[in-house]
Structures are given as C-alpha cells and as structure tokens.
Specification:
Layout lengths: L6 H4 L35 H5 L8 E2 L2 H10 L2 E7 L4 H11 L2 H10 E7 L4 H14 L8 E5 L5 E5 L4 H17 L1 H18 L14 H12 L18 H14 L2 H16 L13 E2 L7 E2 L2 E2 H18 L2 H17 L10 E2 L2 E2 L2 E2 L7 H7 L3 H10 L20 H7 L5 H20 L6 E2 L2 E2 H18 L2 H17 L8 E5 L2 E5 L2 H18 L2 H17 L1 E2 L4 E2 L24 H15 L3 H21 L5 H11 L3 E6 L3 H8 L7 E6 L18 E6 L2 E2 L6 H9 L3
Parallel strand pairs: 1-3, 2-3, 18-19
Antiparallel strand pairs: 2-4, 4-5, 6-7, 8-9, 9-12, 10-11, 13-14, 14-15, 16-17, 18-20, 20-21
Amino acid sequence: MLTRISLCSLLLSLLCTCDRATNSPAPGVSNDETGHQNHLAGEKSPYLLQHARNPVDWYPWGEEALDKADEENKLLVISVGYAACHWCHVMEHESFEDSTVAAVMNESFISIKVDREERPDIDDVYMSACQLTNERGCGWPLNVIALPDGKPVWTGTYLAKEQWMDVLTQFRKLRGENPAKMEQYAADLTQALQERNRFAGGAGEGEALTEEEVNTMASLLLDDIDFDRGGTQGAPKFPTPTLYEFLLTEYFYSGNKRSLEAVTTTLDKMAGGGIYDQLAGGFARYSTDADWKVPHFEKMLYDNGQLISLYARAYQVTGYERYAEVVRQSLEFVESKLSSPEGIFYSSLDADTEGEEGLTYVWQEEEILQSIPEKDLAQAFVEYYSITEGGNWEGKNILLRAENGDEIARKYDFATEADLRKGLKPASDKLLVLREKRPQPGLDDKALTAWNSLMISGYADAFRALGTEEYRQRAVEAAAFLRNHSMESDGRLYRNYKDGEAGINAFLDDYALFAQACVDIYQITFDESWLKTANQLIEYAELHFYDNVSGLYNYTSDLDPALVTGNVPVNDQAIPSGNSVMARVVYQTGILLADDAKKQRAGTMLANLREPLIKNGPRFFANWGRLYIDLLQPTYEVAIMGADAGAVRDQMSREFHPNALFLGGDAEGSLELLTNKLIPEQTTIYVCLDKVCQLPVTDAAKALEQLNSPD
C-alpha cells in the first residue's frame, strides 16, 4: 500500500525550490485588460468569477474540460480555492494574472478552477492526495497536476511564480519523455486514495455503551486542552465548536468541572481576543498564534453559526452574561454583513481588503484618540483594547481585551469590567461608523445549504437561550426559503443558491445539516411540517447516499458522476462530518416519530466508529462522542399539550437539556407520541422515556424537576 509519498522521489529536482515561498509581487502582465473572459465567465461562484478575466484559459470542472484534456492528451492543472482565501489571491496575482505563466498553462495543460465550497467532493479527493504525498502539510490554494482522467500525479499549495513555473516545466517535460512513469505513479496514488476512503465498518457492533468509556474520551480530549489560553495546545488555534459541545454535554451528565473549565476558558479567551471582532461581533476563521490574538481575518458563515450555538448553550449552563452578549452581537454582525435580502445567508467575508490582509480592521493609536473627543473615555478605550503607540501587530493595532479588565474598570470609576464595556460602547459605535467608511473586504454572496443550515440552528439555539422572538422568526424565514427554493418535492436538495437560481446537486452534509435545522425549528415552533421535511430529507439520503456495505453514507449522491475515488466522511473537523450529523438527526427523528428502526440505524452507525472514537478520543470524532452520550444516557420525550404549549416550551428551553426532545402543540396532530395527551382547557406536560410517561403536570417548574431528577 502507498502510505506517504515523497514527491522528490518521483521528480528528483522538482521541489528543490518548495521552501522559497515569498509574498512579493511577480512581474508580468496582470489581469486581462482587453475584455476577454475565459470559460469561467458564466459561473455563479464569486471565487470562479474572480478568475474569469485571468489570461489563463480556466475551465470550470465538468465534461467539457475533461473531454478536451482527453482529446488533446494534455495534463490537467486543477486549482482549488475559495473567495476568502488570502494565499489564493496572492497566487492569482503573482501567477494566474501573469501572461508568461498563462502562456505555458494554456499551451501544455487544460486548467480547471474549483471553488472548494461549491464542490467539496472534488476538494476532498485532491486534498486527500495532498495529505498522502506531502510532508509539510496542505492548504489552499490547492494545486494539482493530474492525468486527463483526473488521477492526481502531483499536489501542492501556494507557490511563488518561479516555483510554479518550475513545476509546470518539469511536468511538461516528464509527460513528453516518460509518460509511463507518470501514469504508474498516478495509478498507485489513486489506489492509495481508494483504500484510504474505503471505510470498513462494523467494529464493536452490539457492545454495551459505558460511562467509563465516555470518561476516557473526555480525559483524552482534556489532555489536548490549553487551560491557560483556551483551545487545544499550540498554534494556530481553531475554534472547532464541536469539541466544546461534547464537553458541555459530558459536563451535564458527569458534573466534571474540568470539562466545564475547558469550555469557559476557551470561550472567554476567544471572546476577548483578536479572533473576535470587538466592535461589530462575529469570529474570524482562526488565530495564527496561541493567544487568539492575531486572526486570519476571513469570516466564515459556518464558524459563526456554530459558535453562536455554542455560546448560547454555554450561557444556558453558566448564566454568564458575556456569553449572551457575544450571541447578540454576533447575530447583529450576521444580519449586517452576511444576510441576503431574500432572508438567507451569504458564505463569507474576505481576509483581504484591497490586497492587504486585515486592512479594514486594524487601527493606529492616534486615529482612535482623535476619533473619541472625551479624553478619559479615549484613554480607557486604548487601555482596555490593548492599543499601543507602536502597534500590537506589525505596526498596527488589533482590538483585543486586556487581561486586567477589572483593574482598568476601577481605574476609570466603573464597578465591573462589564460596566466598563457598556461605558465604552459609545466610543465603540463611533469607531465602527468610522470603520464602515473604509474600503471593505469582499463578500462571497453565494448561499450554501449546509452552511445556511448551521446558521439556522444558531438562530434556533439563540432563541432557546435568550428568548428573543426575532431569532425564532429569522430561523423559520431562512429555513422556509431553503425549503421553497433549494429543495425539490421528492426531497432532493441543491447545494448552492445565487442570483435567483439553485444549482449543484447537494452533498451529504447539506442533507444532514438541513434535516438537523428542521428538527431544531420543529422544537421551537411545534410546526409538524418541519419534522416531516426532516424525515423526507433523511429518506432521500437513505435512497441515494446510504452504503449497505459500510453501514454509513457516501458523501456524494448516486446521481452524480463518479470521481477518481469516493468518500465516506467520518471525521468531525471545522464542520462535523455528514455521517455524524446524519446519525444524530436520524436518532432524534427516531424518537420524535416513534420510529425504532431509525434509532437502531443511529446505533449501527455509531458502532462503526466506536473503536477509533474510544481509542483516539473525540479530537476528530467529537460529534460521534455526542451521539455516544445520546445513546448511553436517557433521552426524554417532553410532550407539551394545550393552548399555552408554546409558552411552556419556551420557558423550559431556557435551560440546557441535551437529555430532552420537545414536542407538542395546541392540538394532537399526527405524531404517535401525542395521541390522547390533549386535555381540554389545560396545558399539560408529559415527561416520558421510550413512550412511558411520568405523572403529567401543569407547571413547567415541576416538569423540569422530573427532567432533572427522573427517579
């Protein structure tokens, strides 16, 4: 089996230059000024359209490009990136806008541009190849040399112009002099990819779940936590919300204060760091350092949707007002910058403004002092947000909260740090107005079903925690738009919506996350149509994605053309895997619909991941860890019936209850679990387990007592 392949063993001299990365501009002719556009001109993706006037004759992924490569027997250049990617922009400027580079690519290669957010299936194939063949790690832009049939031969990330030209020249030469060597290498690498993506399930099926194993999982994860600075050890630091969702759930059942400390330390440090926009709310993609200080300035919808859910749940657990403040402010950011007129959500804001990373967000001390006329207020702002004359980052200042916030508050006659923040809000608002007048980062205005679903769940969780009616309305509005515009009557979904059109056959995470969002909306509305939609999505995915051999779901539908290798996604990363999300939502709908087959399906899926989860811990399987707890601990059906069912549900939902699913309404409806539970002129609460209910009560507090102390 091919394990890790050193590229220099294939082409001895090719990557001798691979460590000479530079960010200096390359000479040459830049963007085509003749009005000529390449084959990307008709695309919807903002990222692809950014390259539509490159002199490189880019094609989108599809039969036209692949057939042309086959007919002309040319190698493929496959370049994968996304609109908010800083180094993607750098390589475009240095190489893809350069006429000399373009001439080589156009003469000897068929060049394909891929938006990884639109086509994560393609990105996964070639990122997996990169991980197999590169010792130094992989990222974006992801550049691939492949045979005409798409089998990869070489992968790499950002390269300066001279390095990229070396790669092109060497492969053009090798293709002419030794094509058999190249084809054998591609065959070996493709076989390795297929073996890597061939998931063998079934380990541990039928074994009892134990609290001891959950404790072991938690211990393994806690060993990775940086308890001084939050997050996992080292740098860069990524938020990875699912890790802390697992720890919050584990804490709920075990009372393990170390788990809660890991969560609160991380959330406190993130909310105070540069990764959090101290003026407008919202989180950047990650921190380049170990202190959450210097962000990679791009802001992604999927991060913010998940982090809003996490902070909302942490507020339910702790009552820390700062967490509620982060939720409110971050939702204001989403409404201001990532919301479309139709009511759905855009994908991201760029890391760069006018070619400079972070230009919109950083400050000089003098401009802050001049913008806030009240001297004491200005000085307090400067101290609290760590502003210095020389700058706290590359001669400029990133706003981040000082560690001694309470001390600064007392210095300026505020009782607490929270009071200081409130006192500084007029100054913050003034600076935000000033910042809005600057050049702004680019917006990727495509709406992805999976990412919108995370944001819908974020609004639903914010409503549960804070009770703000507008949050419920926004969740319903966005979900209704997806159901009406990105979903067919048979349950088929589209991944992308832009300029009034839905397109691209959806992937597993689109189905799983939208189904989860629908279940979340059902629980805050008691509108059964959302539960029916969730079930329809699950049934469609079972028909077109489920693999009977592995007992899991493929990432791509059986309606899509096959790539060089398939994928059964199981790792929970920046976004939890489609399989772990699907397993949890199948379990939840199984309970709400009284469908034991669905509950059994979830257990079978978990059994497939039990061994790696217990052996390695939840670092890359955190959502599976949550499912493990779901199946180990009792999950109660809380049925609320009567005219005031909604108000009682909202009251009970203020608390964090991962052990409960809520259902009900002012009529019995069609759900089996609600049959014969409506009592005229009375709102009644039933706390049930496996359809067996405790004594019905009419008071939410008593129902919570039953839920918290079922014995």
